[in-house]
Amino acid sequence: MNAEQPLNQQGQKSYSGTIKNFSKERYISSDWSAREWNAVWTKSWLAAVHVSDLREPGDFVVFDLGPESVLLTCNAQGNVQAFYNVCQHRGVRLVTDHTGNTENFRCPYHSWRYDTDGDLIYAPHQDGFQEGLPTQTLCLPAVRCDKALGFYWINLDPNAEPLDAFLKEMVSIMGHYEFENLTLVQDQTVSINCNWKAVVDNFSELYHVHYLHPQHRRFVDCTESLSECYEGGHTRVWVPGAKTDSLFSTPDKPTDLLTMQLQAFGLDAEQYEGKVDEIQAAIRMAKRALEEKEPFYGNFSDEELTDVIQTNVFPNAILTYQPEMLWLLRLRPHATDPNQCYLDKLSFERSPRDAADRPPESTDDLQEKRTEHTGKTNRPERNCFDYSDVITGSATMTDTIDQDLSLLAHAQKGMHSEGFQGPWLNEIECRVSHFHEHLDTLIRHSEN
Ligand code: FES
Ligand SMILES: [Fe+2]
After folding, report:
1. Domains of the chain
2. Shortest-distance atom of ligand 1 to CA 94
3. 78-111, pLDDT tens digit by residue?
4. Which of 123, 220, 249, 318 is 20–30 Å from 346 (CA)?
């Protein structure tokens, strides 16, 4: 399968790949999780940290992954490196803060100290080590780290293929969005009672959208979406934006969400009464007119100016973006339990403004609340919560994701039922099939 074989959700171009179903074991079995750890998590390049978090000497970020924890640092020369986050004395996790800036890292147990190059620089009572203190071998073990698409990526496999080779076409299809120039405005992590792949599956198909997300029909056309499957297990979907869903009759007046988009670009919604079909072209023109002031608009095709695009980079990164914004949704497995996972949502904006004069985004996050910025770096603090907080309304990740989360916990319960054999996929779910096919290939190769 490749990008030249797209699937239109209405089936206007038939899907030429083969949909493969699979057993449910992969969602619930600890044995399967162990195989995945060996074949996927310890072998894949994973988007760990946005470049803006590691710009100044001394900046650091911790990226937890299953049973492992990785420390990314920016050294005195401005070079970014990654290390296992574990003290070489007696194995204590060295850094517990998520982000920060420091001259060196002091272990909370016996006060061994490491610099931002991972070198051991101090240990108390040094004379008492009868076999000496070989600092070359007692430095923090390095983890592969490289930069692409505005992020530092890590790989636990020292012999992994280069990042570029792993990402394949992903750099060429997203490079012009220049994610490195975006600003992080919100950092959230939710723990969910389901397998990580149930969340990836959820964000790999629009089959559920008409029913679970009725608000989408007021600003995007999921019926005309286009799904693409790429080599390496990666996938993408284009959803035409700044219009209503073509499965339903066009309204006489712009919907509330289209009205907000028009207003954000200085257009009078009343002018579009009876002409809702003209809104998409009008917003494209308005963005083109901004090119002189905001040259990044020149990077994009007409479709890219208004469509919402989501690209899933195998195995765990889901990027949803428009010229003005990006969400990185990222799955991380639980250390021991296949029935639990973590979903990170990092929200970025091209030109962050004060909430008061900030235009609404073209997605449905109108009720999104900003977290407070930390005083020192102006970085939003990470906000961690449980999916039950979302269901009770004490936390939100936007209406759409909240709706998804309400379903996912039920999905995991059903997976355990004797009455459920495994998924039975529609063509519209071709990206789900493509992802699992690649996962199966990796597991087969690693075990042969
Ligand atoms: S475990 Fe870190 S100094 Fe002892
Ligand atoms: Fe959804």
Report:
1. 1-44+174-252+301-448 (3.90.380.10), 47-159 (2.102.10.10), 256-299 (no CATH)
2. 2
3. 999 999 999 999 999 999 999 999 999 999 999 9
4. 220
